[in-house]
């Protein structure tokens, strides 16, 4: 049996897949109970009356090229949130298996695990060491029931990159035992390359990528899982049949055109400059006690009075994120880097 089938829920491995309406664009469609006319109210590109292509080939190919992996290693869905959910559902038996996370980190890993009935095990990042990965704790706490380990690099909400060599050592140590999922939602904002280049030699490594952040498509809901083709094939069994809406497909393909990618690159440069300015200026504010370095499109700052900082931002018409509920961040606020004007307004509100 393959390592994926041994690791995954046996009932999912055995699941007979739903047969969605066949995708045969050369034929006229009288097989999916659709209406033959476009909807009233607007259908600029045409075709909204039709169910979309399940894993749209054009988008999968563009993402595979962009991320430097084979098309069989790509699963596209409604944001990386969907991939997180699918992974927990496919690999964890409710009441039996567990998922390991490294707080403070993105909350959806634990939420998706709990929705699935999986136990959540923690190996906290080391706050005294810049929120570094605690490699020994991860390996020590990974037991036979730990099916999935989620790491986030750059990490949300702390903004730091995790040590690449440590992540790869963890992947190797867990080979055949657990899936190591590295969430690279913010990778475009930092100077480090994705781990995509090592996917082939490390089949239990999977990567989360998204068009929500660097590509400015959070409202379209489009993300991808990059993984061993066997993992992708397993998750394709449980992803809802039409996971990429037609409007999302059109918006994603447009954002992945060469000219759009070039313009995105220029925006990323500007965003990094603004991030550098914000990190510097925030640190000068008397109300700010600490600013953490960031490799993402946000800054994490600790205030003498975080409640007052939140209130002053709101009074200036700006919403920043209350990060006080994260473990070890009792006075922290997370600030997404905005336009230069928005950033200046925020600094002024806090001066
Ligand atoms: C680390 C991380 N992963 C994933 C997501 C979700 O991204 P998506 O919009 O692709 O679902 C977020 C959203 O903030 C995030 O911070």
List the helices and strands and how they pair.
Layout: H1 3-7, H2 10-13, H3 57-67, E1 74-77, H4 79-91, E2 98-101, H5 108-115, E3 119-122, H6 135-141, E4 146-152, H7 164-173, E5 179-183, E6 205-210, E7 223-226, H8 229-238, H9 246-255, H10 258-284, E8 288-292, E9 298-303, H11 306-315, E10 321-322, E11 332-336, H12 340-349
The structure holds pyridoxal-5'-phosphate.
Short description:
This protein has 12 helices and 11 strands. It folds into 2 domains: 3-256, Aspartate Aminotransferase, domain 2 (3-Layer(aba) Sandwich); 261-349, Aspartate Aminotransferase, domain 1, CATH 3.90.1150.
Provide key terms for this protein:
351 residues; binds pyridoxal-5'-phosphate; Aspartate Aminotransferase, domain 1; seven-stranded mixed sheet; alpha/beta
Poorly predicted parts: none
What is the strand arrangement across the widest sheet?
1-7-6-5-4-2-3
Could you say which structural class the secondary elements and strand pairing correspond to?
Answer: alpha/beta
Annotation field: number of helices: 12
- Give Rg in angstroms: 22 Å
Query: Which CATH-level-2 architecture of the largest domain?
Result: 3-Layer(aba) Sandwich
Q: What portion of residues is helical?
A: 25-40%
Q: How would you describe what is shown here?
A:
- The chain is α/β, with parallel strands linked by helices.
- It has two domains: 254 residues, Aspartate Aminotransferase, domain 2 (3-Layer(aba) Sandwich); 89 residues, Aspartate Aminotransferase, domain 1 (Alpha-Beta Complex), CATH 3.90.1150.10.
- It is 36% helix and 15% strand.
- It has twelve helices and eleven strands.
- The protein has a seven-stranded mixed sheet, with helices on both faces. Strands 8-9-11-10 form a four-stranded antiparallel sheet.
- Helix 4 packs across helix 5.
- The protein is globular, with a radius of gyration of 22 Å.
- The chain starts with a helix and ends with a helix.
- Bound molecules: pyridoxal-5'-phosphate (PLP).
- The site of pyridoxal-5'-phosphate has 12 residues, from helix 4.
């Amino acid at each position: 049996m393959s390592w994926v089938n041994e690791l995954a829920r046996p009932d999912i491995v055995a699941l007979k897949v739903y047969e969605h309406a066949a995708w045969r664009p050369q034929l006229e469609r009288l097989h999916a109970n659709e209406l033959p006319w476009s909807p009233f109210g607007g259908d600029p590109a045409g075709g909204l009356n039709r169910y979309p292509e399940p894993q749209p080939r054009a988008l999968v190919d563009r993402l595979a090229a962009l991320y430097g992996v084979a098309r069989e290693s790509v699963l596209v869905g409604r944001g990386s949130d969907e991939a997180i959910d699918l992974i927990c559902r496919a690999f964890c038996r409710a009441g039996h298996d567990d998922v390991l996370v490294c707080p403070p980190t993105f909350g959806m890993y634990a939420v998706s695990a709990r929705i699935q009935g999986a136990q959540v095990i923690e190996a906290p990042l080391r706050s005294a060491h810049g929120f570094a990965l605690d490699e020994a704790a991860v390996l020590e706490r990974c037991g036979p029931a730990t099916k999935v380990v989620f790491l986030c690099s750059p990490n949300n909400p702390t903004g730091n990159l995790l040590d690449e060599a440590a992540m790869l050592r963890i992947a190797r140590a867990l080979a055949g035992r657990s899936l190591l999922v590295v969430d690279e939602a913010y990778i475009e904002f930092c100077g480090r390359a994705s781990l995509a280049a090592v996917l082939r030699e490390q089949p239990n490594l999977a990567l989360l990528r998204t068009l929500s952040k660097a590509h400015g498509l959070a409202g379209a809901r489009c993300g991808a899982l990059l993984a061993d083709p066997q993992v992708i094939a397993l998750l394709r069994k449980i992803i809802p049949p039409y996971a990429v809406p037609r409007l999302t497909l059109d918006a994603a393909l447009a954002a992945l055109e060469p000219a759009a990618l070039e313009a995105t690159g220029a925006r990323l440069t500007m965003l990094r400059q603004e991030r550098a300015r914000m990190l510097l200026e925030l640190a000068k504010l008397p109300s700010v006690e600490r600013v953490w370095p960031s490799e993402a499109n946000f800054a994490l700052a600790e205030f003498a009075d975080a409640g007052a900082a939140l209130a002053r931002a709101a009074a200036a018409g700006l919403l920043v994120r209350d990060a006080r509920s994260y473990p070890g961040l009792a006075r922290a606020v997370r600030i997404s880097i905005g336009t230069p004007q928005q950033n200046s307004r925020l600094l002024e509100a806090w001066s």
